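Lecture 7, part 2: worked example. A protein chain together with adenosine monophosphate.
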Amino acid sequence: MRLVFLGPPGSGKGTQATMVGEKLGVPQISTGDILREAVALKTDLGEKAKSYLDSGRLVPDDVVLSLVDKRVGEADCAGGFVLDGFPRTLAQALGIEEILAKRDQVIDAVVFIEVDDEVVLGRLSRRRVCPQCKALYNLEADPPRENEKCDRCGVDLVLRSDDRDDTIRTRLGVYRKDTLPLVEYYESRGLLRKVNGGAEIQDVFSAVMQEITKVGKN
Ligand code: AMP
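Predicted complex, written out as structure tokens:
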């Protein structure tokens, strides 16, 4: 199954996409993770992307499309994948369709995680990430066992540099302008599955799985 997770920053789409990927046994592909890693490793891609990530703006479509094209062509994606944080613009949505069409593939469903702005702002300021394994935590809703240390790696969790207040506002503005139109686009194509992202992680996961199991049955 080839799935897209759509939602504002802080909607929990990364957490849900990871859980669904594990459940279905397919890779979760986060363009944000790939770009952050490239920035950390100072690769050519990282050099191109850095200023966009730092300011909360979108990396140009051609750059993101070429990295996704390469990633979905890898062997572990043959049985499906979960796209997290991509597509984020209409050009990217059209681009991934072309990329998949070359391989006689399509997107099977788009899970849209809906949450209010206040919830998003609260969640992002409490979000912490493991700099090593990229596991996500929320200091209130999903805290690590030991004070701000990763359960798996034991290293100190960090606040993502773009989870600071001013950058969060930019990211929400970008989301509304560039990404929200995709909801209508996918709705018109009959692919959209809406889930309320304001509930507890496990409850959202159950709702997401319920939607996914309906795919192809109606
Ligand atoms: P995320 O981890 O999905 O919140 O993404 C973090 C940042 O990476 C975004 O604010 C953008 O600067 C960049 N980014 C991630 N995915 C994309 C995408 N599909 N298109 C453009 N920029 C992206």
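The chain has a mean pLDDT of 94. The pocket of adenosine monophosphate is lined by residues 9, 31-32, 35, 52-53, 56-59, 64, 85-86, 88, 92, 162, 171 (CB under 6 Å). Keep this in mind for problem set question 3.
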